[in-house]
From TrEMBL:
Protein's GO biological process: aromatic amino acid family biosynthetic process; chorismate biosynthetic process; shikimate metabolic process
Domain THIF-type NAD/FAD binding fold: 121-158
EC number: 1.1.1.25
Chain ranges passing through the membrane: none
Pfam families in UniProt: Shikimate_dh_N, ThiF
GO cellular component, one term: cytosol
Name of the protein in question: Shikimate dehydrogenase
Catalytic EC class: oxidoreductase
Species this chain originates from: Rhizobium esperanzae
Annotated pathway: Metabolic intermediate biosynthesis; chorismate biosynthesis; chorismate from D-erythrose 4-phosphate and phosphoenolpyruvate: step 4/7
C-alpha cells in the first residue's frame, strides 16, 4: 500500500518495459514492512538533466536507481560521487544527503565482487582479466580494484575505451598493476566476460577457452540466458563460475545499505522476487 508517508525510489531509464527492479525490491519491501516503493519512470535523454534535479525537490523522494541510457550523464549532475563511480565513469544509484546534496554510487561491480566472495573465491591479491571495458566492465574493474586485486588485465576491441579505463584506474589506484590489449586468460585467477557476446545465437566465444585453467573462476554478465555458451564451455573444463543474474541479485543488498534500508541476502531476494 502506497500512502502519504511512503518513500519513493525512482527507477530512471528509457524505455521502461524491460525494468526488473520493481519486481525484486517491492516484494521485499512489502514482506518486511518497509514503507518504500520503487517506481519506474521513463525519461528521455533530452529531458533527463532537468528532470533529475526536479525529482529530488519532491518532499517524499528517497533516492533513484539509474539505468540506461542515463548512467554516464548522471555523473555531471551529482554533488558527490564514490570512487567506484569515478573509476566506472558512470552511476546507477543516487540518494539525497542530509544537506540536500545529490550523492551517487555504482553497484554493478560491487554485486559482481560480492558474488565471487560469497562463492569462496579470494579476490585480494588475485590476478583478474576483464574482457570488455564498457559500462559493466568498467564497474567490475572499479570494484575489483577496491577489493584489492594485484593485477587487472583489460581487453576491449575498442582500444580507446580500454585506454580510458586504464587512465581512470591509474588515477585512483596508482599502485595497482594494470595492463591492456590482450584477452589471453592464461595465468589468471579470475576471468570475466563483460562483453555482450553470448546474448545472440551464433556469437563467438569472448575468450579462448583452451587457454583457461580449470582452477580459474569465471564470471559472466550476460543475463538473457543463465548458462551461456561461454559458461557451458568453462563448466566443461571444470571451472567454478558465476552467472549473469548473480551480479544483479548480489548488488541489491548493497543498494539497500546505500539507501539506509534494512538489508538482506541475495538468496532471500531470489526467493521472494516476482520475476515470473
Amino acid at each position: 500500500m502506497i500512502t502519504g508517508t511512503t518513500k519513493l525510489i525512482a527507477h530512471l531509464g528509457y524505455p521502461t518495459e524491460s525494468f526488473k527492479a520493481p519486481l525484486i525490491y517491492n516484494p521485499y519491501f512489502e514482506k518486511n514492512g518497509i514503507d518504500a516503493v520503487v517506481v519506474p519512470m521513463g525519461c528521455r535523454p533530452e529531458d533527463y538533466p532537468a528532470f533529475l534535479k526536479l525529482l529530488f525537490r519532491l518532499s517524499n523522494i528517497h533516492g533513484a536507481l539509474i539505468t540506461m541510457p542515463h548512467k554516464i550523464s548522471t555523473m555531471a549532475l551529482l554533488d558527490e560521487t564514490s570512487t567506484n563511480a569515478k573509476v566506472a565513469g558512470s552511476c546507477n544509484a543516487v540518494r539525497l544527503g542530509s544537506d540536500g546534496a545529490l550523492i551517487g554510487d555504482m553497484f554493478d561491480g560491487e554485486g559482481f565482487v560480492r558474488g565471487v566472495l560469497r562463492k569462496g573465491k579470494k579476490v585480494e591479491g588475485a590476478h583478474a582479466l576483464i574482457a570488455g571495458a564498457g559500462g559493466v566492465g568498467s564497474a567490475i574493474a572499479a570494484s575489483l580494484a577496491q577489493a584489492g586485486v594485484a593485477h587487472l588485465a583489460i581487453f576491449d576491441a575498442n582500444e580507446a575505451t580500454a585506454a580510458a579505463l586504464l587512465d581512470r584506474l591509474k588515477k585512483y589506484y596508482p599502485q595497482l598493476q594494470v595492463t591492456v590489449g590482450s584477452a589471453d586468460p592464461d595465468g589468471f585467477d579470475i576471468v570475466v566476460n563483460a562483453t555482450p557476446l553470448g546474448m545472440r545465437r551464433g556469437d563467438p566465444l569472448p575468450i579462448d577457452i583452451d587457454r583457461i585453467s580449470p582452477s580459474t573462476f569465471v564470471g559472466e554478465v550476460v543475463m538473457t540466458k543463465e548458462i551461456t555458451p561461454f559458461l557451458e564451455a568453462v563448466r566443461a573444463r571444470g571451472c567454478a563460475f558465476q552467472v549473469g543474474t548473480d551480479m544483479l541479485f548480489e548488488q541489491i543488498p548493497a543498494y539497500l545499505e546505500f539507501f539506509e534500508f534494512p538489508t538482506t541476502t541475495a538468496d532471500n531476494l531470489r526467493a521472494i522476487a516476482k520475476l515470473g
